[in-house]
TrEMBL record:
Domain of life: Bacteria
PANTHER family: PROTEIN RSEC
Entry keywords, A to Z: Membrane, Transmembrane, Transmembrane helix
Gene for this chain: rseC
Transmembrane residue ranges: 74-98, 104-121
Annotated Pfam families: RseC_MucC (PF04246)
Record-given protein name: SoxR-reducing system protein RseC
Length: 158
């Protein structure tokens, strides 16, 4: 099970809307100024994802929850997204090379196969996402933010 903490935005009739922060590939090393991964992460427009997760327990905004998703669903979706365009690219490029015998035909076949594989992945993904085993679940729930109180040292001495 792959786990991640999220913050509750809203809860209504057994459905919690939660926000997950996107983690950068690396953020802790000393060479942040010259890091190519950091530059690429800054280019991405989205820093949080909002999803809806079923929750029988009432939740309040600001409360932390731990979400979990099975490894098989994550690996399956990654295989679909990455392998179907790649497989389409190679298969259609090889087919066009055999049928037409030119490099330009193989190039056109590669483009058509890659786009076709992408469209196949896009068509299958809603059906796979609808599976119950591919849905994230709430594993544990943190305390509501109004129950946590901190006191400074001057408040404690009074």
């Amino acid at each position: 099970m792959i786990k991640e903490w999220a913050t509750v935005i809203a809860w209504d009739n057994g459905l919690a809307q939660v926000s997950c922060d996107v983690k950068a590939s690396c953020n802790s090393c000393a060479s942040r100024a010259g890091c190519g991964s950091r530059v690429l992460n800054k280019l991405g427009p989205q820093t949080t994802h909002t999803i809806t997760v079923p929750s029988a327990e009432p939740l309040v905004a600001g409360q932390k929850v731990e979400l979990g998703i099975t490894e098989s669903s994550l690996l399956g979706s990654a295989m679909l997204v990455y392998m179907s365009p790649l497989l389409g690219l190679f298969v259609v490029a090889a087919l066009f090379q055999v049928l037409f015998g030119t490099d330009i035909a193989a190039l056109c076949g590669a483009v058509l196969g890659g786009v076709g594989g992408f469209l196949i992945a896009k068509g299958f993904s809603p059906r796979l996402a609808a599976r119950q085993t591919w849905q994230p679940v709430i594993i544990s729930v943190g305390l509501p933010p109004d129950l946590i109180r901190t006191a400074s040292s001057s408040e404690m001495s009074q």
